Amino acid sequence: MVREGKSTMKKGIFYMFAVILSITLFRPGNVIANDKVRFGGDVVVDEGTEVKDAVAVGGSVTVNGKVRDSAVAVGGSVILGRNAVVGKDVVSVGGAVKQEQGSKIHGDVVEVNIPGVSAIIPFFFEDPSSSWFWIFKITIFLGFLALAVLMVAVLPKPFNLISSNVQQNLGKVILWAVLGLVVLIPLAFFLLISIVGIPLIPLEVFLVGIAFLFGYIAIAQLIGDKIAALVKKPALGVIWLTVMGLLALWLIGWVPFLGSLVKATVIVLGFGGVLATLFTSRKRVQVENPL
């Protein structure tokens, strides 16, 4: 039986959080160990087969056997055959849940309709030999580069402060990053389970996204500064430093495993740099302006 209401919406938001986090921090791949998880393709649970979870990102999930926990499709649909059994929830983000008569769902059915998701997500997992793959990737990078250049040109001071803080106080920045991540996850779950907190979830996502964005660009600027020093061009402006750093990170990102590791490190360090700069700047203001 399908149960609707606030709990269903919370679960839909929770699954979206989990999938976005996995895409951001980990490179696409297959997960073994009792789960059927696939990035950029369909997942099929055959009749007579039992798995713990069935998850497809950029594809659909077809269940003809048994899924002990949840069946989740992001950018696709969940299709349940007449002998399908799902022990917990069935979730489709950007698709639909199609259930044949005789199939059983022991949890909630969650459909999050986001127009365009099923068309956009496959681009992230398309065959690198495809020309559309390269057009899409280069367009995304140039768009992000333009945004970063605009932000640095309009607000150069915050990026200079963050990059300087990371360079001079790396230990404190790492501590702030760890503290921020430790607080962030419980805070997100608290907002999800509280009625008052649900309207604040978009605000948290926005603020955290801004922090990651500022931090990433600031670290890129610092990397660009190091590259300029290596090629003996120390007089370059901050915009050129930012462009060089972002280009270097984009190129490193194509290296299997190492690229993902470097980008994840940059994101975490940048986040810590933003927090350290924000709170240390506030303390300085309080010291300089005592009551």
Which features would summarize this protein structure in a list?
291 residues, alpha/beta, 5-stranded parallel beta sheet, 4-stranded parallel beta sheet, 8 helices, 13 strands, 55% helix, disordered N terminus, disordered C terminus
The secondary-structure element order is HEEEEEEEEEEEEEHHHHHHH
Structural class by SSE content = alpha/beta
Number of DSSP helical runs: 8
Could you describe the largest sheet, including whether it forms a barrel?
5 strands, parallel
Count up the domains: 2
What low-confidence regions span 5 or more consecutive residues with pLDDT below 50? 1-7, 20-33, 283-291
Please give a structural write-up.
- The chain is an alpha/beta fold and 291 residues long.
- It has two domains: 6-121, no CATH class; 127-288, no CATH class.
- Helix content is 55%, strand content 14%.
- The chain is built from eight helices and 13 strands.
- It has helices at residues 6-25, 117-120, 131-154, 156-168, 170-193, 201-230, 238-252, 258-288, and strands spanning 36-39, 43-45, 50-51, 54-57, 61-63, 66-67, 71-74, 78-80, 85-86, 90-93, 97-99, 104-105, 109-112.
- The strands form three sheets. It has a five-stranded parallel sheet, with helices on one face.
- α3 runs antiparallel to α7 (238-252), α4 (156-168) crosses α5 (170-193) and α6 (201-230) crosses α8 (258-288).
